[in-house]
Amino acid sequence: QDKHSAKAIRKLIKNSKSEAAIINALWTLHGLDSIDYKTISTQLSKGSTKTKAAALAVSTKLPKKTPQKAS
Fold first, then answer.
1. H or E stretch covering 4
2. Radius of gyration for the alpha carbons in the chain, expressed in angstroms and rounded
């Protein structure tokens, strides 16, 4: 259920023109523990000042990436 919900919320974020809807959706993903790098990076590069601030705030729940080993 949560994975399906998170997918629908990400679609809303991608297609919405409403700052309030995007911010609420970001916080909803945060509450579902479903924040992902693609959603955050898109908002940081293309979002408004307010949605960028929200993206930064919810990014605290991004999964920790492990460093890549040099080949």
1. helix 2-15
2. 13
Name the residue among 45, 46, 26 with its Cα closest to residue 36. Answer: 26
Q: What is the distance between the alpha carbons of residues 44 and 51, in angstroms, rounded to a whole number?
A: 8
- Does pLDDT of 1 surpass 80? no
Q: Which residues contact 61 (CB under 8 A, 6 or more apart)?
A: 30, 33, 35
pLDDT at 3: 84
Query: For residue 55, how far is the Cα from the chain centroid?
Result: 6
CB atoms within 10 A of CB 10: 18
Query: How much is the pTM?
Result: 0.84
